[in-house]
Amino acid sequence: MPKIILIQGSLNPDSNTAQLIAATKRELDKRGVANEIIDLRDLEMQFCDSRPLREYNENTQAVHKKLADAQGFIFGMPVYCYSVSGPLKNFIDIHSSAMEKKWAGILGQAGGKASYMSLGDLARILAFESHVTTVQPHVYTTYADYDDGELTSEKTKAKIQEMLDNLVACLHAAKEENA
Ligand SMILES: Cc1cc2nc3c(=O)[nH]c(=O)nc-3n(C[C@H](O)[C@H](O)[C@H](O)COP(=O)(O)O)c2cc1C
Q: Rounded CA gap, 175 and 179, in Å?
């Protein structure tokens, strides 16, 4: 059974991205898909300065190993200035080699509806930096999709299911191809 790592990319203590990731994790659990959340708020993340992995702190090296051992990823991306937030981009810069040629889904959270295309920046970065292929649909939410910090939008929940269907199918197909 493939393992999926969910990467929660917001450092905000009251993050909506974290709620979106939590809702997606619940669906993976229901499907019996092995998964684990890596929440950027819990990491001792250093800045990427192109040093070798062994020179980063132990926490960074442990995270790298978890990513290398996983087959798929789901990124929770807070939209900053129509693009990927700085901390999440830094995370990808450090760990890109652990994600090489794997599969990913994208969840994005923004303040308003107009920034939907920002999620394409993350897909492009993953493709160019790690040859990661992202599945459709990309799931996009705004403040209106949450109530009291809980994801309430039924449309978003349906999109999460569709994204998971496609991601899990790709992971199974990749497993069979490599068997
Ligand atoms: C520096 C910064 C830039 C932002 N840029 C955008 C933007 O371009 N478009 C948008 O819709 N929201 C933008 N926002 C709003 C965030 O996307 C929104 O607050 C979102 O909820 C962040 O995710 P989080 O709740 O998980 O932290 C920005 C917020 C910050 C702090």
A: 6
Look up the CATH number of the domain holding residue 147. Answer: 3.40.50.360
pLDDT digits 0-9 by tens, 39-53: 999 999 999 999 999
**CA 164 remoteness from chain centre:** 12
Residue 19 in contact with ligand 1 by CB distance below 6 A: no
Residue 175: CB partners within 8 Å, gap ≥ 6? Answer: 2, 71
Name the pTM for this structure.
0.97
Q: In this predicted structure, what is the pLDDT of residue 175?
A: 84
- Of 15, 79, 116, the residue with max ligand 1 atoms within 8 A of its CB, to mutate for a pocket test, comes to 79
Tally of domains within the chain = 1
Look at the block and give the residue holding tokens 């497993």: 175
Q: Could you tell me whether strands 139-141 and 103-109 are parallel, antiparallel, or unpaired per DSSP bridges?
A: parallel
Cβ–ligand 1 distance for 111 under 6 Å, the answer: yes
Task: Report angle CA 79, 83, 88 to the nearest 5 degrees.
Answer: 70
Q: Residue 78, SS3? A: strand
**Residue 102 above 90 pLDDT?**
yes
Q: Are 40 and 91 in contact (CB under 8 A)?
A: yes
Q: Are 99 and 130 in contact (CB under 8 A)?
A: yes
> Considering the chain, what percentage of its residues have pLDDT values greater than 70?
100
